[in-house]
Amino acid sequence: MAYKIVTSQCTVCGACEFECPNTAIRMKGDTYIILADKCTECEGHSDVPMCVSVCPVDDTCIPA
Description:
Layout: E1 3-5, H1 15-19, E2 25-28, E3 31-34, H2 50-54, E4 61-63
Antiparallel strand pairs: 1-4, 2-3
């Protein structure tokens, strides 16, 4: 399962894009999205998804 970004809560800080080990996070329009086909929930890289751990807003990166 992949994660997704709740765009209405995203502050567009960019922290998640640079922390994603799979380069699954991209800017689309004026917000960020997670490419489901690239997202592995950071399995093998971290105990928790990096987007969740670095996001300054709770519940912005959530399971899809």
